[in-house]
Amino acid sequence: MASQPPEHLPPQHLPPHQQGGPDDVAARTRQILDAHAELEGPLLPVLHAVQAEFGHIPEAAVPEIVQALALSRAEVHGVISFYHDFRTTPAGRRVIRLCRAEACQATGGDVLAADIRARLGIDWGETTADGRVTLEPAFCLGLCACGPAALIDDRPAGRLDTARLEALLAEAAP
Amino acid sequence: MTLYLSQDAAARALGADATAEALAAALAAALAATAPGVRLSRTGSRGMVWLEPLLEVETEAGRYAFGPVTADMVAALFADGVPGPDHPACLGLTEDLPWIKRQTRLTFARCGVIAPLDAAAYAAHGGLRGLRRALGMSPADIVEEVTESGLRGRGGAGFPTGIKWRTVLGAEGPRKHIVCNADEGDSGTFADRMLMEGDPFCLIEGMVIAGLATGADRGFIYLRSEYPDAARILARALDIARAEGWLGPDILSSGRAFEIELRIAAGAYVCGEETSLLNSLEGKRGVVRAKPPLPALAGFMGRPTVVNNVITLAAVTGILADGAAAYRDIGLGRSRGTIPLQIAGNVRRGGLFEVGFGLTLGEIVNDIAGGTASGRPVKAVQVGGPLGAYFPPEMFDTPFGYEEFAGRDGLIGHAGIVVFDDTADMLAQARFAMEFCAIESCGKCTPCRIGAVRGTEVIDGIARGEPGRIELLQDLCETMKFGSLCALGGFTPYPVLSALRHFPQDFTPRHREAAE
Predict the structure, then answer these.
(1) Which of A48, A91, B130, B370 pairs as cysteine with A134 (C-beta 3.0–4.6 A)?
(2) To probe the interface with A, which of B258, B341, B418, B431 has the most A CB atoms within 10 Å?
(3) ipTM of this complex
């Protein structure tokens, strides 16, 4: 039994595929379900894979998951909505996960967070109007000795200030 | 000759990849003539995050340290060939640096030394000794060895590992499981991440030993999604371990079988709690389960299950290799062995420091960390993550141990230590603790789900100077403490009440007006 393929990780950063219609979503979701058929308790790996494929969890994927895993629609919805990682609408081209936790607070994280939200004109969980950047809060990235820290897609960045974060963003998403 | 540079996420966050590119260019161009045959090895981290990117140069005397070495410094550093001990930027032999020398590095002995996915280097540096010994022992003897070592769960709860394993060994069931809790969500902690990125085979070996000890044949690593580097490295390490015969149907030709599956979490802090983790692993909402039944008897899919933290499982390899006594002889009181301290926040020297239990909090913050990075006085130190208490400098005489911290209304948790200078607003920190609990509550227990929301409102009332709010906050904290099933609701009162008790001056309305 192979471990989870690393290309599923992390879910947010992979560019959404050209999105087809609901039939294409359903067909591709069935393939993903088949690929996970041997797992015990496969719902999270399946949702990660669906999100890696489409950039979010499209509505049309849900009935396929419900049928294949013999769950109710409510159960699947309950899981999707419970976890912060799963999104039901597409993210921006780049996702910043900016740490809001205590170690980064101790090194000026709150000021940085307020500043970057003002500059981007968005709040936590929102995407800029041009679709360039989504800003997500993270509660610890394990970069606590070099805060304030963020993941830009899956690239770690430490000792951030507003100028450095903006420079990294410009580099990542021209 | 070999140069060593960390590929740990913290080193990458500080520019190690750009340094590596600059080194590659220097090696390809100028150095090809003057110093041919020099190669660059990417390792895990030594844990000296303030020196990252840390470059080490191998010599016959050992590895010499240079750091931080950012990309723009490489050309000058290598202007006269590979820099040696006489170079003005040389910090000395890495092993002689005070930060390294003062440690008792057992669990992290290989971290930062070897390339994480080099199976031969793992074996050459003491890897597999524990597993080989365990393969010659009965399950009961392995459990006894771990019990004798005094090892307690490093995830935070501090439950004796040997007793947990004994329960699973004695449990009836056709299938049993080892679940590694790698959902390291506490702010200020990164020991699990460093170990998984820097020495992943150590975790794998520890899980196999746990399987041999308890009769489990299948393990899961439940890894948080905030650690993409660890996910990539672990996935490859599992493949390599299978190819080497360290995992699979016939471990080291013993005829014993064990398999590990890597599962990625989905961003819920509460899933670090073991019963909520098990629900998540089963594909459900990460809602906490009532205990009993214990996961040891009815865990993953209702089967007997060991749930252990990364560092607990990694420590087992050394205990089996060198015997229980060597581990038990280190430590303080009922806290035996070593603890990887993670020193974070506003500190001059932040990073990972593995040492026997017993240093005082003051020694850790002042001597090892060197005080604050800002140069301002320390105001508060939060130990044990977002559910840990805030300690003022007046309590710096507290020795680092499970009971010692509990005796002063604190907890060591996963041994994260977050330092704040005197600009910290402790009312804001208390409010954040409640806000975090409200965001991350699984929703099962009312005192946690609703109490945390009310908690933020009550603290806002204190800031506005509303009467009777402090008493209300204390009362609410009592309710959360005793009316919540798990540590999220039950321990959120620790940071809140410790902030209130030790920093009452921050909970006056006048203070808030001045601050705003």
Answers:
(1) A91
(2) B418
(3) 0.96
